[in-house]
Amino acid sequence: MHNNYYFLRVLASTLRQKLMYARLKQCFSQEKDELVLGFERQNGDEFWMKCCLGPQFSCLQFPDNFHRAGRNSVDLFSDVLLAEVQEVEMYENERAFSLHFLGDFVLLFKMYGNRANIILFRDGEFQSLFQSRLKKDADIVLANLHRPLDQSWEAFQAHDGNYSALFPTFGKEIKAHLLHLGYENAHLKGRWEILQALKKEVENPTFYVYHREDGVYLSLLKSEGEALYVGHDPLEALNALYKFHYSIGEFLKEKNQLLNFFQRAQDKTRLYLQDLLNQGNKRGASVPYEEIANIIMAHLHLISANVTSVELPDFYRDSTIKVKLNASLSATQNAENYYRKSKNYAKELAHWQEQVDRKKEEIKVWEERWEQVHQATQRKQLKAFIPLLTKDTSQKAVEEIPFKVFDVQGWTVWVGRNAKNNDLLTMKYTKRHDVWLHARDVAGSHVVIRNPQQKVVPKQVIEEAAGLAAHFSKRQHESLCPVIISSKKYIRKTKDLLAGQVIVDREEVILVPPARMD
C-alpha cells in the first residue's frame, strides 16, 4: 500500500514539513528507472529523495546522504535546479502529489505502481518527463487530477451501500480487510459504521512492513504474523520497505525461481535419461541385425518374393523367428540391409552410451546447483546463477521469435516451422557466427544454434541440435540421420532457389539419432 492514496496523503504532509522553502540543489539519474533529488533545507541540512520507478517495483526512498557517481550520471529537470519549494500538494482521491517551486514549476509524482513517473510542468503546461516510455503522461492536465467525491451518509445511501463509487482509492488490501470485517453481511447502517472506523484508521495510520510469499509489502493495517517494521513515520516506513524488499523479498523471489528452474531441469533430464534407458532395454531384448542377416542368407530358399515378413528357423536360439522384409527387394538385398544396419548399430550403441553417461552427469550438476541455492542465505550466493533466470523467464522474448525455441544446455536453438519460415530464420535472423544445421538430402527444418558471443560451441550441444534437425525432417523415424553442420557465413541463397532452399559452400556431416519429443 506504499502507493495507496491514504499513505501518499500522510507522506505529502510529512514532505510539506521537511521541504517547505528548501532548494533543489541536485536532480540526476545514474541507474535505469532511478531519479535522485537532493535538497538543501533552510537550516543548511541536506534532504535526499531517491525515486525508484521500475516496472516491477516503484518506491520512494529517503537516504540520510547520497554520493553521486563520478561517471554514468546525467542531470535531469535542469530548469528547476536551485528553485525553492513553495508547496507540497496532495491531489484528492488520486495516487499523486506534487512539489511546487518558485517560478511556477510543478514536479508531479505520479505513483501508479508499474506506471509510476515524475513529470515537470511550468505554468500548468507540460515540459518533460522522467520515464519517456510513458508517453501518454505528457497529456496529463494538472487541474484535472483532483477528484472531489461526495462521501456522505446520504451519498452512501444513494449507492445502496456500494462503497466503490465513493471510495475508489481503497485498493485491494482495504477491500479484503472489509470482507474480513464482515462488511458484506452487515446491514446498511452497520456497513457505514465499518467504513467510518476503517477510514479513520487509514487516515491516521500506523505503518507496518510485512513479508509474505509474493514479497515484502507496506500496510496501513495490522495483519497476522510478525511485522518487519512498525512505526508512524512514512519516510522511515518507505526506507524499511526498500531495505527489506531487496534484502529479503528479492532474495527469496530469486531463490525460489532458481530452485524451480533447477528442479525443472532435473525432471527434464531424468525423463530424457529414462527414455534413453528404455531404448537400451528394447535394443537388448531384440535380435542383433547381423544374426537376422545370417538367418536370411541360410534360408534363401524358404523366402518367397514380394512378402513383407516371413517365419524362419532360428539356429541361434533353436526356435523360429519372424523377420520383417522389404517386399520390393530380393531376399539377398534384404539380408544386405540387415548387414548394413548391423554396422551402424555399433556406432549407434556407442552414441547411446555416451548420451546416457552425459545425462547422468547433467543430473548430478543440476542436483548440486539446487543444493547450493537451497543452502544460500544471502543474495550474493545466488549471483553466479542469476543469469540463468533471464533465459528461463524471458517468455515474452521467446514468444516474439517466430520460430520454435529450445534451450540446449544453456544455448538457444531456433528451429524453422516451414519453408518460408526457414528462409526467414536463415537469411534474416541468423548471424555470421551462428551454427546452421539441416538433415542431409531430405526436406526438413533449418536449425540454428545462436552464438552472439562467438564462442566455441560444445560438441554435445551440436549433437543435440543435430538431433532436433533430424527430428524435424523426413528422416525423423530412422534410427540414425546424417545432418549437415555449417556456419551461417557459408550459407547463401540465389534468386532461382525455391523457399527453404539454400547453397552450403562448406559443410561437415555427423550421424545422430533423431531427438525424441515425447
Summarize the structure.
This protein has about 525 residues and is an alpha+beta fold.
Describe the protein in words.
The protein has 518 residues and is of the alpha+beta class. The chain contains eleven helices and 23 strands. It has helices spanning 5-19, 153-158, 171-180, 188-203, 234-285, 289-298, 331-375, 386-393, 395-400, 419-429, 459-471; strands at 23-31, 34-40, 46-53, 58-61, 74-75, 85-90, 96-101, 105-110, 117-122, 125-129, 207-212, 215-219, 229-231, 309-314, 319-324, 404-408, 411-415, 435-439, 447-449, 481-487, 491-492, 503-504, 508-512. A six-stranded antiparallel β-sheet has the order 16-17-19-18-20-23. Helix 6 runs antiparallel to helix 7. The longest helix has 52 residues, at 234-285. The protein is elongated. The chain starts with a helix and ends in a 6-residue tail after the last strand. The model is unreliable at 392-399 (pLDDT under 50).
Characteristics of this structure?
5-stranded antiparallel beta sheet; 518 residues; 6-stranded antiparallel beta sheet; alpha+beta
